[in-house]
TrEMBL record, chain A:
Top-level taxonomy: Bacteria, Pseudomonadati, Bacteroidota, Chitinophagia, Chitinophagales
UniProt gene name: nuoK
Enzyme class (EC, first level): translocase
Organism listed in the record: Rurimicrobium arvi
Key word ATP-binding present: no
Subunit structure: NDH-1 is composed of 14 different subunits. Subunits NuoA, H, J, K, L, M, N constitute the membrane sector of the complex.
Name of this protein: NADH-quinone oxidoreductase subunit K
Protein topology in the membrane: Multi-pass membrane protein
Entry's EC annotation: 7.1.1.-
Length: 99, 628, 167
């Protein structure tokens, strides 16, 4: 199976993630789109790992998962905090925070 | 022993470092004592070396280290000890020591006395470098060093605005001369690729480097411009009278005995170059003569005791340059020596008078001081007699030699020089009579305060008075003696150019003439000052009192246009041009930032868009425009 | 088409479709469900790529832990389709256009890079826990330890941020 298949698959997932981040105003959906992008990259790394028969790439996937988990923990805490302040998760009203 | 000569400048340097670094914590008494002690040690060493040279020790170069070594150019930091420098060492350290001793008493009430002695030691150190250096660069270091110390000491009482202005004036005037010296040095370096005296003079004497006469003339004139600044010759002399703002011992040491004679030393040292250019010698003779006459005329109508002495110094320096211009280098050096003694004596005497008068310097409110200060009066009289040229005092012999060499050159020079010498006699005795004889004209309070100065001040006066009396005998003219000891001593280092020989009868006649006329002048001075009435001067006298309006002339011709021009540079070029450009850049950045700031609007969605567009742009650039 | 290819295509369609569902569904809870399904599809791909351990970890960590966290937060805030804020259609179009542009540009970059490579079908053991453990604790032990510190700080940070105001 050519590597291009996986390239296009993960690229498609990545771009869907980007579109989601751009289109939606809900901070939690944006967050999930970012998770989607991270997973697209993970998939690509796994494909290359198989292609070069090297497990180091899978270790990187592992680290990405670690970072993503940490990010989700902090990010959701921030969203909860924001919600508590402004009773909304709309990113467009976050510019109020600068005042 | 000669190899130890490097110790001579070392001791004043140590004194400077101790006093200079500890100026806050040094006790006042200790500072003066330390500085004087350092001078005494240096003087002892100089004396030993002088006698060694006199006994026939050869010229010695004492190398310390390579100062500049670049390509073919090698300038060592080395000292040269020969007859000329050893004589100057003796004058500097000897007179310097006496003036240090005098200062311990004169300055003892001043709050900055430690600083004062530090400067004084630094001055002596620089002056010693100047005369001991074995090449022009070392001389130049000393040359600048004494200029700096002169500036520091003229402006020593820096809280007075006039004094600091005088210091600045001296510094700037000296800079003009120093530029000439520097250009001369570069010319020498360019043409001979060495600055060492020995190599340079050997090249000239053996014609290794054949140069046109005009090159020598240029070098000689450039060096002389340096000497003009330092030795206060026309047109750069106006700083010296103003330099009297400094403490009186400073005037005695720096502005009479040593620093201002540096120009004479420099030209005597470079006599080999000057012998190549008759034009330069004529030029020097004329400048010297004009300075001598001009300064003497001004001195006649001055009322400040120190100003009279200052103009007298300028005038005497003019005499020295006249001697040099006539090729009589040793005569100039002879006059430097005798002048150092009697002028230091006169300055210290005036310091003693000012001390007694509680700071008053105007001779119109003095008079009759002789009764209260016998020692000062007698020593001052000796100084006056010496400078006026009455045998057998020192000034007679040296001045007579100058007049004789001027006569040998041209009778016109002789007549003009004699005129200046007669004026010297007149204004000095005018000063003497106004100060010491007659009735006291000051306030009653001042009269009550009058007293003879303490021993630390009278001791140097007495020593200098003895020297001013006897030092002429080292250069007895041919008529009286077979041996001219000074010339014999100096002949290894510097010899006169176109030595003149004069009929004994002529010489005796000239002597008689000058002594007779001088006596007449003294009588005239006595008659004019017997019942002094100081009405406002008119006509020529007023011009003289105002120093020929030279300062005003310089202000109008040089200073004011310069001030205007720098004002223009300040207002237009600096404020509008450069500041405008610099501020404009800042304003532009602020303006741009003010608009760019709006991009950061706090909208997370906008940021995300920007990011994605940025990524797209990077890819597009990488794909189609940049190969990486 | 052998069985593996068929599975590949099924998984691919499922992943892309569910991803679109994440982005397009109006109810956040539906989004979360779609995302979980996407993760399952990706895990299937991992299995095809002989990354068995990753497949399991993906399901446990992402689909299990992280998505539960998301769901929990959404429930906590009581979000649903009615409260969902909507961007204007212009902005949505702009988002689609920029995403699509990026997609095209990266496809251009890939075709220019001219990647030639085939993922061979033989099963290998690069994805086994034993092999990964060897690599992780030999070559990558330092990043591993550092990531543990990262975890600790993230945990503390989440607690500090999530706490009620301290006064």
């Amino acid at each position: 199976m050519p590597i291009q298949y996986y390239l296009f698959l993960s690229l498609a997932l990545f771009c869907i993630g980007i579109m989601g981040a751009l289109m939606r105003r809900n901070a939690i959906i944006i967050f999930m789109s970012i998770e989607l992008m991270l997973n697209a990259v993970n998939l690509l790394l796994a494909a290359f790992s198989k292609m070069y028969n090297d497990s180091a790439a899978q270790i990187f996937v592992f680290f990405i998962m670690v970072v993503a988990a940490a990010e989700v923990a902090v990010g959701l805490a921030i969203i909860v905090m924001v919600y508590r302040k402004v009773h909304s998760v709309d990113v467009n009203i976050l510019n109020r925070l600068k005042h | 022993m000669i190899q130890l000569a490097y110790l001579i400048p070392l001791f004043p340097l140590i004194g400077f470092l101790i006093n200079g670094l500890g100026w806050k914590s040094m006790p006042k008494q200790a500072a003066g004592f330390l500085a004087s002690l350092m001078m005494l040690v240096s003087f002892g060493l100089s004396l030993a070396i002088f006698f060694e040279v006199k006994a026939g020790a050869a010229d010695t170069i004492i190398p310390l280290f390579d100062f500049i070594h670049s390509g073919k150019l090698l300038i060592p930091f080395a000292f040269k000890i020969d007859a000329l420098s050893s004589l100057f060492l003796l004058i500097i350290t000897g007179v310097g020591f006496l003036i240090h001793v005098y200062s311990t008493s004169y300055m003892h009430e001043d709050e900055g006395v430690v600083k004062y002695f530090a400067y004084l030691n630094l001055f002596v150190f620089s002056m010693l470098l100047l005369v001991m250096g074995s090449n022009y660069l070392i001389m130049f270091i000393g040359w600048e060093g004494v200029g700096l110390c002169s500036y520091l000491l003229i402006g020593f009482w820096f809280k007075n605005r006039d004094y600091t202005n005088a210091a600045k004036k001296a510094f700037v005037m000296n800079r003009i001369g120093d530029l000439g010296f520097l250009v001369g040095m570069m010319l020498v370096l360019y043409n001979f690729s060495t600055l060492n005296y020995n190599e340079l003079f050997a090249q000239i004497n053996t014609n290794q480097t054949v140069l046109s006469g005009s090159t020598y003339t240029w070098v000689a004139i450039c060096f002389f411009i340096g000497a003009m600044g330092k030795s206060a010759q026309l047109p750069l002399y106006t700083w010296l009278p103003d330099a009297m703002a400094g403490p009186t011992p400073v005037s005695a040491l720096i502005h009479a005995a040593t620093m201002v004679t540096a120009g004479i030393y420099m030209i005597a040292r470079s006599s080999v170059i000057y012998n190549q250019s008759e034009f330069a010698l004529h030029f020097i003779a004329i400048v010297g003569l004009l300075t001598a006459i001009l300064a003497a005329t001004i001195a006649i109508k001055q009322y400040d005791i120190k100003k009279v002495l200052a103009y007298s110094t300028v005038s005497q320096l003019g005499f020295m340059f006249l001697a040099i211009g006539c090729g009589a280098y040793t005569t100039a050096v002879f006059h430097v020596m005798t002048h150092a003694f009697f002028k230091a004596l006169l300055f210290l005497g005036s310091g003693s008078v000012i001390h007694a008068m509680g700071g008053e310097q105007d001779i119109r409110s003095m008079g009759g001081l002789g009764k209260k200060m016998r020692i000062t009066q007698i020593t001052f009289l000796i100084g006056c007699v010496a400078i006026a040229g009455i045998p057998p005092f020192a000034g007679f012999f040296s001045k007579d030699e100058i007049l004789a060499s001027a006569f040998a050159h041209s009778p016109i020079l002789y007549v003009a020089a004699l005129g200046a010498a007669l004026m010297t006699a007149f204004y000095m005795f005018r000063l003497y009579f106004l100060t010491f004889s007659g009735k006291f004209r000051g306030t009653h309070e001042q009269e009550h305060h009058l007293h003879e100065s303490p021993a630390a001040m009278t001791f140097p006066l007495i020593v200098l008075a003895i020297l001013a009396t006897v030092s002429g005998f080292v250069g007895l003219p041919e008529v009286f003696s077979e041996h001219h000891s000074l010339n014999e001593f100096l002949h290894t280092a510097v010899t006169n150019f176109g030595a003149h020989h004069m009929e004994h009868n002529t010489e005796l006649m000239l002597m008689g003439l000058s002594v007779g006329l001088v006596s007449v002048m003294i009588g005239l001075a006595y008659a004019r000052t017997k019942s002094p009435n100081f009405v406002a001067n008119t006509g020529l006298a007023k011009v003289l009192e105002n120093k020929w309006y030279v300062d005003e002339f310089y202000d109008a011709v040089v200073v004011n246009p310069l001030v205007q021009f720098s004002g223009f540079l300040d207002r237009i070029i600096e404020r509008k041009g450069i500041d405008g450009g610099v501020n404009g850049v800042g304003k532009m950045v602020r303006w741009a930032a003010d608009r760019m700031r709006l991009l950061q609007n706090g909208q997370v969605g906008a940021y995300l868009f920007t990011m994605v567009i940025g990524i797209v742009l990077i890819f597009v650039l990488g794909l189609f425009f940049v190969n990486f | 088409m052998d069985i593996l290819q068929i599975i590949f295509w099924i998984l691919t369609v499922m992943a892309i479709g569910c991803a679109l569902g994440v982005v397009l569904s109006r109810n956040p809870v539906n989004s979360v469900i779609f995302l979980i399904l996407t993760f399952f599809a990706i895990s299937g791909h991992y299995l095809l790529l002989n990354a068995q351990f990753l497949a399991i970890v993906n399901i446990i960590v992402y689909a299990g832990a992280i998505m539960v966290l998301f769901l929990f937060v959404i429930m906590l805030m009581n979000l649903n389709a009615d409260t969902e804020p909507q961007k204007s259609w212009l902005v949505q179009l702009a988002g689609v256009v920029s995403g699509g542009t990026l997609f095209l540009v990266i496809i251009a970059a890939i075709s220019k890079a001219n990647l030639l490579g085939v993922i061979n079908k033989e099963t290998t053991n690069i994805g086994l826990i034993k092999v990964l453990g060897q690599v992780l604790f030999k070559q990558y032990v330092l990043p591993f330890e550092i990531s543990s510190v990262l975890f600790l700080s993230a945990m503390i940070g989440a607690i500090v941020i999530g706490k009620k105001d301290m006064e």
